[in-house]
From TrEMBL:
<dbReference type="InterPro" id="IPR003043">
    <property type="entry name" value="Uropor_MeTrfase_CS"/>
</dbReference>
<feature type="domain" description="Sirohaem synthase dimerisation">
    <location>
        <begin position="177"/>
        <end position="219"/>
    </location>
</feature>
<dbReference type="GO" id="GO:0043115">
    <property type="term" value="F:precorrin-2 dehydrogenase activity"/>
</dbReference>
<dbReference type="GO" id="GO:0032259">
    <property type="term" value="P:methylation"/>
</dbReference>
<keyword id="KW-0808">Transferase</keyword>
<dbReference type="GO" id="GO:0004851">
    <property type="term" value="F:uroporphyrin-III C-methyltransferase activity"/>
</dbReference>
<keyword id="KW-0489">Methyltransferase</keyword>
<dbReference type="InterPro" id="IPR050161">
    <property type="entry name" value="Siro_Cobalamin_biosynth"/>
</dbReference>
<dbReference type="InterPro" id="IPR037115">
    <property type="entry name" value="Sirohaem_synt_dimer_dom_sf"/>
</dbReference>
<feature type="active site" description="Proton acceptor">
    <location>
        <position position="273"/>
    </location>
</feature>
<dbReference type="GO" id="GO:0019354">
    <property type="term" value="P:siroheme biosynthetic process"/>
</dbReference>
<keyword id="KW-0169">Cobalamin biosynthesis</keyword>
<comment type="similarity">
    <text>Belongs to the precorrin methyltransferase family.</text>
</comment>
<keyword id="KW-0511">Multifunctional enzyme</keyword>
<dbReference type="InterPro" id="IPR012409">
    <property type="entry name" value="Sirohaem_synth"/>
</dbReference>
<feature type="domain" description="Siroheme synthase central">
    <location>
        <begin position="150"/>
        <end position="170"/>
    </location>
</feature>
<dbReference type="Pfam" id="PF13241">
    <property type="entry name" value="NAD_binding_7"/>
</dbReference>
Length: 500
Protein backbone atom coordinates (compact mmCIF):
# COMPACT_ATOMS: atom_id res chain seq x y z
CA UNK A 1 0.00 0.00 0.00
CA UNK A 2 1.29 3.45 -0.88
CA UNK A 3 0.18 5.97 1.72
CA UNK A 4 0.78 8.80 -0.71
CA UNK A 5 -2.30 7.77 -2.66
CA UNK A 6 -4.47 8.52 0.33
CA UNK A 7 -3.64 12.21 0.61
CA UNK A 8 -4.16 14.99 -1.91
CA UNK A 9 -1.43 17.52 -1.24
CA UNK A 10 0.74 20.14 -2.90
CA UNK A 11 3.68 19.17 -0.68
CA UNK A 12 6.59 17.57 -2.49
CA UNK A 13 7.03 13.87 -1.84
CA UNK A 14 10.04 13.37 -4.09
CA UNK A 15 13.61 14.54 -3.58
CA UNK A 16 14.00 18.26 -4.21
CA UNK A 17 15.83 19.35 -7.36
CA UNK A 18 19.22 20.94 -6.99
CA UNK A 19 18.96 24.68 -6.44
CA UNK A 20 20.80 26.92 -8.95
CA UNK A 21 24.60 26.96 -8.64
CA UNK A 22 26.79 29.94 -9.46
CA UNK A 23 29.57 27.53 -10.48
CA UNK A 24 29.95 23.75 -10.71
CA UNK A 25 32.30 22.52 -7.96
CA UNK A 26 34.67 20.00 -9.55
CA UNK A 27 37.67 18.17 -8.09
CA UNK A 28 40.24 17.73 -10.82
CA UNK A 29 42.92 14.99 -10.98
CA UNK A 30 46.23 16.52 -12.11
CA UNK A 31 48.71 13.86 -11.01
CA UNK A 32 51.37 13.55 -13.73
CA UNK A 33 49.67 16.14 -15.96
CA UNK A 34 51.38 19.13 -17.54
CA UNK A 35 50.33 22.50 -16.08
CA UNK A 36 51.36 25.95 -17.30
CA UNK A 37 51.90 29.02 -15.11
CA UNK A 38 52.77 32.28 -16.86
CA UNK A 39 54.26 35.03 -14.71
CA UNK A 40 56.79 35.19 -11.90
CA UNK A 41 54.83 37.00 -9.16
CA UNK A 42 54.04 35.83 -5.66
CA UNK A 43 50.43 35.27 -6.74
CA UNK A 44 51.60 33.03 -9.58
CA UNK A 45 53.91 31.20 -7.14
CA UNK A 46 50.96 30.33 -4.90
CA UNK A 47 49.02 28.87 -7.83
CA UNK A 48 52.11 26.94 -8.99
CA UNK A 49 52.60 25.47 -5.52
CA UNK A 50 48.94 24.44 -5.44
CA UNK A 51 49.25 22.66 -8.80
CA UNK A 52 52.43 20.89 -7.69
CA UNK A 53 50.72 19.73 -4.52
CA UNK A 54 48.20 17.97 -6.79
CA UNK A 55 51.04 16.08 -8.50
CA UNK A 56 51.21 18.16 -11.65
CA UNK A 57 54.36 18.89 -13.63
CA UNK A 58 54.36 22.69 -13.46
CA UNK A 59 55.99 24.58 -16.32
CA UNK A 60 56.70 28.18 -15.32
CA UNK A 61 57.12 30.77 -18.09
CA UNK A 62 58.69 34.01 -16.78
CA UNK A 63 61.85 35.94 -17.43
CA UNK A 64 62.02 37.17 -13.84
CA UNK A 65 60.84 35.43 -10.67
CA UNK A 66 59.91 36.99 -7.36
CA UNK A 67 62.02 35.97 -4.40
CA UNK A 68 59.18 33.75 -3.18
CA UNK A 69 58.81 32.06 -6.54
CA UNK A 70 62.55 31.63 -6.95
CA UNK A 71 62.86 29.96 -3.55
CA UNK A 72 59.92 27.71 -4.33
CA UNK A 73 61.53 26.43 -7.52
CA UNK A 74 65.00 26.05 -5.98
CA UNK A 75 63.72 24.20 -2.90
CA UNK A 76 61.13 22.08 -4.64
CA UNK A 77 62.13 21.43 -8.22
CA UNK A 78 61.61 17.78 -7.31
CA UNK A 79 58.81 18.25 -4.78
CA UNK A 80 56.97 15.43 -3.06
CA UNK A 81 53.91 15.54 -5.32
CA UNK A 82 55.02 17.32 -8.47
CA UNK A 83 57.92 19.17 -10.03
CA UNK A 84 58.68 22.59 -11.45
CA UNK A 85 60.26 23.37 -14.80
CA UNK A 86 61.35 26.99 -15.23
CA UNK A 87 61.38 28.44 -18.75
CA UNK A 88 63.15 31.85 -18.49
CA UNK A 89 61.18 33.42 -21.31
CA UNK A 90 57.64 34.43 -22.19
CA UNK A 91 55.01 31.90 -23.20
CA UNK A 92 54.16 31.21 -26.86
CA UNK A 93 51.60 29.25 -28.85
CA UNK A 94 53.52 25.98 -28.45
CA UNK A 95 53.37 26.39 -24.65
CA UNK A 96 49.86 24.87 -24.52
CA UNK A 97 50.60 21.57 -26.27
CA UNK A 98 49.54 18.55 -24.17
CA UNK A 99 48.64 20.91 -21.32
CA UNK A 100 45.84 20.13 -18.83
CA UNK A 101 45.49 23.57 -17.22
CA UNK A 102 46.87 27.07 -17.72
CA UNK A 103 47.19 29.95 -15.27
CA UNK A 104 48.65 33.41 -15.76
CA UNK A 105 49.28 36.59 -13.79
CA UNK A 106 49.02 39.35 -16.39
CA UNK A 107 49.86 43.01 -15.91
CA UNK A 108 47.13 44.41 -18.16
CA UNK A 109 43.94 43.58 -20.04
CA UNK A 110 45.68 43.13 -23.38
CA UNK A 111 48.11 40.55 -22.01
CA UNK A 112 45.30 38.75 -20.22
CA UNK A 113 43.18 38.61 -23.37
CA UNK A 114 46.11 37.25 -25.42
CA UNK A 115 46.81 34.45 -22.91
CA UNK A 116 43.12 33.63 -22.55
CA UNK A 117 42.54 33.44 -26.31
CA UNK A 118 45.61 31.28 -26.89
CA UNK A 119 44.65 28.82 -24.18
CA UNK A 120 41.06 28.60 -25.40
CA UNK A 121 42.24 28.02 -28.98
CA UNK A 122 44.36 25.11 -27.72
CA UNK A 123 41.40 23.74 -25.73
CA UNK A 124 43.10 24.26 -22.38
CA UNK A 125 41.05 25.43 -19.33
CA UNK A 126 42.41 28.82 -18.33
CA UNK A 127 42.45 31.18 -15.35
CA UNK A 128 43.98 34.67 -15.34
CA UNK A 129 44.56 35.74 -11.73
CA UNK A 130 42.29 38.54 -10.48
CA UNK A 131 40.67 39.00 -13.90
CA UNK A 132 37.29 37.20 -13.77
CA UNK A 133 36.54 38.07 -17.39
CA UNK A 134 39.39 35.79 -18.46
CA UNK A 135 38.66 32.88 -16.12
CA UNK A 136 36.93 29.69 -17.18
CA UNK A 137 37.20 28.37 -13.61
CA UNK A 138 37.95 29.75 -10.17
CA UNK A 139 39.96 28.65 -7.16
CA UNK A 140 38.15 28.24 -3.87
CA UNK A 141 39.35 28.73 -0.33
CA UNK A 142 40.76 25.34 0.66
CA UNK A 143 40.62 23.19 3.79
CA UNK A 144 43.25 20.47 3.32
CA UNK A 145 42.84 17.11 5.05
CA UNK A 146 43.79 15.26 1.88
CA UNK A 147 42.37 12.96 0.66
CA UNK A 148 39.56 14.96 2.30
CA UNK A 149 39.55 18.34 0.56
CA UNK A 150 36.99 21.09 1.14
CA UNK A 151 36.79 24.08 -1.20
CA UNK A 152 34.60 27.15 -0.62
CA UNK A 153 33.55 29.57 -3.32
CA UNK A 154 31.49 32.77 -3.24
CA UNK A 155 31.72 33.17 -7.03
CA UNK A 156 34.19 35.98 -6.50
CA UNK A 157 31.64 38.12 -4.66
CA UNK A 158 33.17 37.97 -1.18
CA UNK A 159 36.59 36.29 -0.84
CA UNK A 160 36.80 37.42 2.80
CA UNK A 161 33.57 35.52 3.52
CA UNK A 162 35.02 32.39 1.92
CA UNK A 163 38.09 32.71 4.16
CA UNK A 164 35.89 33.11 7.23
CA UNK A 165 33.94 29.99 6.30
CA UNK A 166 37.20 28.12 5.81
CA UNK A 167 38.37 29.09 9.30
CA UNK A 168 35.16 27.75 10.80
CA UNK A 169 35.40 24.49 8.89
CA UNK A 170 39.06 24.13 9.96
CA UNK A 171 37.93 24.03 13.59
CA UNK A 172 35.35 21.30 12.82
CA UNK A 173 37.67 18.90 11.00
CA UNK A 174 40.34 17.30 13.23
CA UNK A 175 43.80 16.72 11.72
CA UNK A 176 43.29 12.97 12.30
CA UNK A 177 40.64 13.02 9.57
CA UNK A 178 43.46 12.76 7.03
CA UNK A 179 44.47 9.37 8.43
CA UNK A 180 40.89 8.10 8.56
CA UNK A 181 40.24 9.15 4.96
CA UNK A 182 43.38 7.36 3.82
CA UNK A 183 42.25 4.28 5.73
CA UNK A 184 38.82 4.43 4.07
CA UNK A 185 40.53 4.55 0.68
CA UNK A 186 42.62 1.47 1.47
CA UNK A 187 39.76 -0.73 2.75
CA UNK A 188 36.90 0.35 0.46
CA UNK A 189 37.25 -2.49 -2.06
CA UNK A 190 37.47 -5.15 0.66
CA UNK A 191 34.44 -3.72 2.48
CA UNK A 192 32.42 -3.65 -0.74
CA UNK A 193 33.25 -7.30 -1.35
CA UNK A 194 31.85 -8.28 2.04
CA UNK A 195 28.75 -6.02 2.19
CA UNK A 196 26.22 -5.67 -0.63
CA UNK A 197 25.05 -2.17 -1.67
CA UNK A 198 22.20 -0.66 0.33
CA UNK A 199 21.41 -0.02 3.97
CA UNK A 200 23.93 -2.48 5.52
CA UNK A 201 26.82 -0.93 3.60
CA UNK A 202 25.70 2.58 4.59
CA UNK A 203 25.46 1.43 8.20
CA UNK A 204 29.08 0.31 8.10
CA UNK A 205 30.31 3.62 6.72
CA UNK A 206 28.18 5.63 9.13
CA UNK A 207 29.83 3.77 12.02
CA UNK A 208 33.16 4.45 10.36
CA UNK A 209 32.38 8.17 10.26
CA UNK A 210 31.49 8.18 13.96
CA UNK A 211 35.00 6.93 14.71
CA UNK A 212 36.66 9.22 12.17
CA UNK A 213 35.81 12.30 14.22
CA UNK A 214 37.48 10.87 17.30
CA UNK A 215 41.04 9.74 17.98
CA UNK A 216 43.47 8.75 15.24
CA UNK A 217 43.25 5.13 13.97
CA UNK A 218 45.44 2.62 15.76
CA UNK A 219 47.52 -0.23 14.35
CA UNK A 220 44.71 -2.79 14.69
CA UNK A 221 41.89 -0.49 13.51
CA UNK A 222 42.07 -1.71 9.92
CA UNK A 223 41.66 -5.39 10.84
CA UNK A 224 38.83 -4.54 13.24
CA UNK A 225 36.98 -2.69 10.50
CA UNK A 226 37.33 -5.56 8.04
CA UNK A 227 35.99 -7.95 10.71
CA UNK A 228 33.04 -5.61 11.31
CA UNK A 229 32.33 -5.56 7.58
CA UNK A 230 32.27 -9.36 7.44
CA UNK A 231 29.89 -9.56 10.38
CA UNK A 232 27.55 -6.92 8.94
CA UNK A 233 27.60 -8.66 5.56
CA UNK A 234 26.56 -11.99 7.11
CA UNK A 235 23.82 -10.46 9.23
CA UNK A 236 22.45 -8.48 6.28
CA UNK A 237 21.51 -11.68 4.46
CA UNK A 238 18.64 -12.31 6.86
CA UNK A 239 18.10 -8.97 8.57
CA UNK A 240 15.10 -6.67 8.37
CA UNK A 241 15.21 -2.90 8.39
CA UNK A 242 14.53 -0.59 11.28
CA UNK A 243 12.41 2.44 12.08
CA UNK A 244 13.61 5.67 13.70
CA UNK A 245 11.09 8.09 15.19
CA UNK A 246 12.62 11.54 14.69
CA UNK A 247 11.53 14.84 16.19
CA UNK A 248 11.62 17.56 13.55
CA UNK A 249 11.20 20.36 16.10
CA UNK A 250 8.82 23.30 15.62
CA UNK A 251 9.94 24.15 12.09
CA UNK A 252 13.29 25.99 12.15
CA UNK A 253 15.76 23.52 10.62
CA UNK A 254 18.59 24.91 12.79
CA UNK A 255 16.82 23.51 15.85
CA UNK A 256 17.28 19.92 14.69
CA UNK A 257 19.66 17.77 16.71
CA UNK A 258 22.76 16.38 15.06
CA UNK A 259 21.37 12.89 15.59
CA UNK A 260 18.17 13.84 13.75
CA UNK A 261 20.17 15.10 10.76
CA UNK A 262 22.17 11.87 10.69
CA UNK A 263 18.97 9.82 10.72
CA UNK A 264 17.57 11.84 7.81
CA UNK A 265 20.82 11.37 5.89
CA UNK A 266 20.71 7.59 6.42
CA UNK A 267 17.04 6.98 5.58
CA UNK A 268 15.72 4.95 2.65
CA UNK A 269 12.16 6.16 3.23
CA UNK A 270 10.82 9.14 5.21
CA UNK A 271 7.20 9.20 6.39
CA UNK A 272 6.59 12.82 7.31
CA UNK A 273 3.72 14.78 8.83
CA UNK A 274 2.20 17.78 7.12
CA UNK A 275 3.58 20.06 9.84
CA UNK A 276 7.20 19.23 9.02
CA UNK A 277 8.81 22.22 7.31
CA UNK A 278 10.38 22.10 3.85
CA UNK A 279 13.65 23.36 5.38
CA UNK A 280 13.85 20.23 7.54
CA UNK A 281 13.05 17.93 4.62
CA UNK A 282 15.80 19.59 2.59
CA UNK A 283 18.36 18.05 4.99
CA UNK A 284 17.30 14.50 4.10
CA UNK A 285 19.28 12.21 1.84
CA UNK A 286 18.32 13.13 -1.71
CA UNK A 287 17.83 9.49 -2.72
CA UNK A 288 15.37 8.83 0.12
CA UNK A 289 11.73 8.33 -0.85
CA UNK A 290 9.45 10.80 0.92
CA UNK A 291 5.88 9.90 1.82
CA UNK A 292 3.42 12.44 3.18
CA UNK A 293 1.21 10.90 5.86
CA UNK A 294 -0.74 13.97 6.95
CA UNK A 295 -1.54 14.24 10.68
CA UNK A 296 -2.73 17.84 10.87
CA UNK A 297 -5.63 19.00 12.99
CA UNK A 298 -8.82 19.87 11.09
CA UNK A 299 -7.57 18.37 7.80
CA UNK A 300 -7.71 15.03 6.01
CA UNK A 301 -5.16 12.69 7.56
CA UNK A 302 -3.92 9.15 7.08
CA UNK A 303 -5.35 6.68 9.56
CA UNK A 304 -2.86 5.71 12.24
CA UNK A 305 -3.41 2.06 11.35
CA UNK A 306 -2.33 2.74 7.75
CA UNK A 307 0.81 4.54 8.90
CA UNK A 308 1.68 1.64 11.19
CA UNK A 309 1.12 -0.89 8.40
CA UNK A 310 3.30 1.11 6.00
CA UNK A 311 6.18 1.30 8.49
CA UNK A 312 5.97 -2.44 9.15
CA UNK A 313 5.90 -3.33 5.44
CA UNK A 314 8.85 -1.08 4.60
CA UNK A 315 10.96 -2.32 7.51
CA UNK A 316 10.27 -5.96 6.66
CA UNK A 317 11.46 -5.17 3.15
CA UNK A 318 14.81 -4.19 4.66
CA UNK A 319 14.35 -0.42 4.49
CA UNK A 320 15.67 2.12 6.97
CA UNK A 321 12.55 4.12 7.75
CA UNK A 322 12.39 7.54 9.41
CA UNK A 323 9.04 8.51 10.89
CA UNK A 324 9.46 12.29 10.95
CA UNK A 325 7.17 14.10 13.38
CA UNK A 326 6.81 17.78 14.14
CA UNK A 327 8.13 18.79 17.56
CA UNK A 328 9.02 15.88 19.82
CA UNK A 329 7.58 12.48 18.84
CA UNK A 330 7.08 11.59 22.51
CA UNK A 331 4.80 14.58 23.24
CA UNK A 332 1.34 14.32 21.65
CA UNK A 333 2.89 12.49 18.71
CA UNK A 334 1.15 9.11 19.14
CA UNK A 335 4.61 7.58 19.29
CA UNK A 336 3.50 5.05 21.89
CA UNK A 337 1.08 3.42 19.46
CA UNK A 338 3.70 3.22 16.74
CA UNK A 339 6.39 1.83 19.05
CA UNK A 340 4.02 -0.86 20.35
CA UNK A 341 3.04 -1.90 16.82
CA UNK A 342 6.64 -2.11 15.60
CA UNK A 343 7.88 -4.00 18.64
CA UNK A 344 5.03 -6.47 18.27
CA UNK A 345 6.30 -7.16 14.73
CA UNK A 346 9.87 -7.57 15.98
CA UNK A 347 11.11 -4.44 14.21
CA UNK A 348 13.91 -2.45 15.90
CA UNK A 349 12.89 1.09 16.86
CA UNK A 350 15.12 4.06 17.66
CA UNK A 351 13.87 7.39 19.00
CA UNK A 352 15.46 10.78 18.38
CA UNK A 353 13.79 13.48 20.49
CA UNK A 354 13.11 16.92 19.10
CA UNK A 355 12.52 20.36 20.55
CA UNK A 356 8.87 20.52 21.50
CA UNK A 357 6.89 23.62 20.54
CA UNK A 358 6.42 24.73 24.14
CA UNK A 359 10.18 25.02 24.64
CA UNK A 360 10.53 26.92 21.37
CA UNK A 361 7.70 29.26 22.39
CA UNK A 362 9.35 30.01 25.73
CA UNK A 363 12.63 30.75 23.96
CA UNK A 364 10.96 33.05 21.43
CA UNK A 365 9.21 34.96 24.20
CA UNK A 366 12.29 35.06 26.41
CA UNK A 367 10.53 33.59 29.41
CA UNK A 368 11.16 30.66 31.73
CA UNK A 369 8.20 28.35 32.06
CA UNK A 370 9.25 27.54 35.61
CA UNK A 371 10.39 30.94 36.85
CA UNK A 372 10.84 30.48 40.59
CA UNK A 373 8.94 33.68 41.37
CA UNK A 374 5.89 32.58 39.38
CA UNK A 375 5.66 28.82 38.76
CA UNK A 376 6.90 25.64 40.40
CA UNK A 377 5.48 23.30 37.78
CA UNK A 378 4.65 23.19 34.08
CA UNK A 379 2.02 21.10 32.33
CA UNK A 380 1.61 20.19 28.66
CA UNK A 381 -2.07 19.58 27.93
CA UNK A 382 -3.81 18.53 24.74
CA UNK A 383 -6.43 21.01 23.61
CA UNK A 384 -8.58 18.52 21.76
CA UNK A 385 -9.70 14.92 21.97
CA UNK A 386 -10.19 12.35 19.19
CA UNK A 387 -13.59 13.91 18.56
CA UNK A 388 -12.11 17.40 18.12
CA UNK A 389 -13.49 18.75 21.39
CA UNK A 390 -11.81 19.28 24.76
CA UNK A 391 -10.90 16.03 26.55
CA UNK A 392 -13.56 15.20 29.12
CA UNK A 393 -11.22 13.97 31.83
CA UNK A 394 -9.04 17.05 32.42
CA UNK A 395 -8.70 18.17 36.05
CA UNK A 396 -9.55 21.86 35.65
CA UNK A 397 -9.14 22.62 39.36
CA UNK A 398 -5.55 21.48 39.10
CA UNK A 399 -4.97 23.35 35.85
CA UNK A 400 -6.27 26.57 37.42
CA UNK A 401 -3.66 26.39 40.21
CA UNK A 402 -1.96 29.83 40.08
CA UNK A 403 1.64 28.65 40.57
CA UNK A 404 1.58 26.32 37.56
CA UNK A 405 2.34 27.14 33.93
CA UNK A 406 0.05 25.37 31.49
CA UNK A 407 0.66 24.96 27.76
CA UNK A 408 -2.26 23.81 25.63
CA UNK A 409 -1.26 22.07 22.42
CA UNK A 410 -3.70 22.07 19.48
CA UNK A 411 -6.11 24.30 21.40
CA UNK A 412 -6.99 26.85 18.74
CA UNK A 413 -10.50 25.60 18.06
CA UNK A 414 -11.24 25.09 21.75
CA UNK A 415 -9.79 28.36 23.10
CA UNK A 416 -13.21 29.64 24.21
CA UNK A 417 -13.89 26.49 26.16
CA UNK A 418 -10.41 26.59 27.73
CA UNK A 419 -11.02 30.12 28.96
CA UNK A 420 -14.49 29.24 30.31
CA UNK A 421 -13.26 26.12 32.13
CA UNK A 422 -10.29 27.90 33.73
CA UNK A 423 -12.45 30.83 34.88
CA UNK A 424 -15.05 28.43 36.25
CA UNK A 425 -12.30 26.63 38.17
CA UNK A 426 -11.29 29.87 39.88
CA UNK A 427 -8.48 31.24 37.75
CA UNK A 428 -8.47 35.05 37.62
CA UNK A 429 -9.33 36.67 34.30
CA UNK A 430 -6.24 38.91 34.46
CA UNK A 431 -3.90 35.87 34.51
CA UNK A 432 -1.25 36.36 31.81
CA UNK A 433 -1.83 34.37 28.63
CA UNK A 434 -0.04 34.02 25.32
CA UNK A 435 -0.85 32.56 21.92
CA UNK A 436 1.68 31.62 19.28
CA UNK A 437 1.13 30.12 15.85
CA UNK A 438 3.74 28.68 13.47
CA UNK A 439 6.41 28.95 16.17
CA UNK A 440 9.95 29.66 14.79
CA UNK A 441 8.71 29.86 11.18
CA UNK A 442 8.68 32.81 8.84
CA UNK A 443 4.93 33.29 9.31
CA UNK A 444 5.07 33.12 13.11
CA UNK A 445 2.42 35.15 14.95
CA UNK A 446 2.08 35.86 18.64
CA UNK A 447 -0.41 37.47 20.97
CA UNK A 448 0.31 38.43 24.57
CA UNK A 449 -2.46 39.47 26.92
CA UNK A 450 -4.70 37.96 29.59
CA UNK A 451 -7.02 35.02 29.94
CA UNK A 452 -9.99 37.39 29.60
CA UNK A 453 -9.33 37.97 25.87
CA UNK A 454 -8.08 34.52 24.90
CA UNK A 455 -10.93 33.45 22.61
CA UNK A 456 -11.09 36.73 20.71
CA UNK A 457 -7.32 36.67 20.18
CA UNK A 458 -7.45 33.20 18.62
CA UNK A 459 -10.16 34.38 16.24
CA UNK A 460 -7.92 37.26 15.16
CA UNK A 461 -4.79 35.13 14.69
CA UNK A 462 -6.67 32.31 12.98
CA UNK A 463 -6.26 28.56 13.19
CA UNK A 464 -4.75 27.80 9.79
CA UNK A 465 -1.39 27.11 11.44
CA UNK A 466 -0.58 25.12 14.59
CA UNK A 467 -1.41 27.10 17.74
CA UNK A 468 0.00 26.97 21.25
CA UNK A 469 -1.76 28.60 24.20
CA UNK A 470 0.19 29.41 27.34
CA UNK A 471 -1.47 30.45 30.60
CA UNK A 472 0.22 31.39 33.86
CA UNK A 473 2.15 33.99 35.79
CA UNK A 474 5.39 32.93 34.10
CA UNK A 475 4.24 34.92 31.06
CA UNK A 476 3.96 38.18 32.97
CA UNK A 477 7.43 39.30 31.87
CA UNK A 478 6.65 38.54 28.24
CA UNK A 479 3.52 40.66 28.50
CA UNK A 480 5.17 43.69 30.09
CA UNK A 481 8.18 43.68 27.76
CA UNK A 482 5.95 43.52 24.72
CA UNK A 483 3.82 46.39 26.02
CA UNK A 484 6.82 48.71 26.10
CA UNK A 485 8.53 47.53 22.90
CA UNK A 486 5.54 47.08 20.62
CA UNK A 487 3.02 49.75 21.56
CA UNK A 488 2.24 50.42 17.92
CA UNK A 489 1.14 46.82 17.24
CA UNK A 490 -2.45 45.66 16.73
CA UNK A 491 -4.63 45.93 19.84
CA UNK A 492 -7.52 43.73 20.81
CA UNK A 493 -10.36 44.99 23.01
CA UNK A 494 -8.41 44.73 26.24
CA UNK A 495 -5.82 47.53 26.64
CA UNK A 496 -3.17 45.10 27.90
CA UNK A 497 -3.31 42.80 24.87
CA UNK A 498 -0.87 43.02 22.00
CA UNK A 499 -0.48 40.98 18.82
CA UNK A 500 2.70 40.75 16.81
Amino acid sequence: MDVLQLLPSDRTTTPARMAPLAKLPVFWALDGKRAVVAGGSDAAAWKAELLAACGAEVHVYAEDLSETFGNLIRQGSESENGRFVHHPHEWNAATFEKTAIAIADCADEEAAADFFDAACKAGVPVNVIDKPRYCQFQFGSIVNRSPVVVAISTDGAAPILAQAIRRRIETLLPPSLKSWAALAHSIRDRVNEKISPGAPRRAFWENFVDRAFGASPETDTESDLISDAGRIGENAKSSIGRVTLVGAGPGDAELLTLKAVRALQAADVILFDDLVSDEVLELARREAKRMLVGKRGGRTSCKQEDINATMVALAKAGKRVVRLKSGDPMIFGRAGEEIACLEQEGIPVDIVPGITSASAMAARLGVSLTHRDHAQAVRFVTGHSRLGDLPTDLDWQNLAEPRTTTIFYMGGRTAGQIRARLLAAGMKSETPAVIMSAVTRNNEKRWIGTLHDLAEAVEEIGVDNPILIGVGRAFSQARSSTQTADEAKLEYGHPQARAI
